[in-house]
Amino acid sequence: MTLQVAFGLVGLAFMVGAFAATSDRPLLLLGVYAAAAPGLIGWFLHRWNGRTRRLRWAIVTTESVFIVISVCCRPSTAT
């Protein structure tokens, strides 16, 4: 999860640069997702010492939601 947060922050830097260059609204929504994902996972990592059952299931649920968003919201490549 630490690497996921690190790469998420790098991706966020690219998203900020891309939005600054184009000012495209859909890119802004993607940037919000790119900021929320590493922020939420970083918060979970901060609380990892507790390792309660709720925290573990919150991490599993969050990762599942991120996977569903990544699969369902990608652009279509059909020709």
Top keywords for this entry?
79 residues, 3 helices, transmembrane helix, mainly alpha, membrane, transmembrane, globular
Tell me the Rg in angstroms.
15 Å
Order of helices and strands: HHH
Main pleated-sheet profile = none
Q: Which structural class best describes the helix and strand composition?
A: mainly alpha
The backbone outline, from C-alpha atoms, is: globular
How does the SSE layout of this entry go?
Blueprint: H1 2-22, H2 25-46, H3 53-72
Can you describe what's shown?
It is built from 3 helices and no strands. 5% of the residues are buried. The termini are far apart. Helices cover 80% and strands 0% of the residues. The chain is globular and about 45 Å long. The protein has helices at residues 2-22, 25-46, 53-72. α1 (2-22) runs antiparallel to α2. The protein has one domain (2-72). By secondary structure, the protein is mainly alpha-helical. The longest helix is centred in the middle third of the chain and has 22 residues, at 25-46. The chain crosses the membrane at residues 30-46. Keywords: Membrane, Transmembrane, Transmembrane helix.
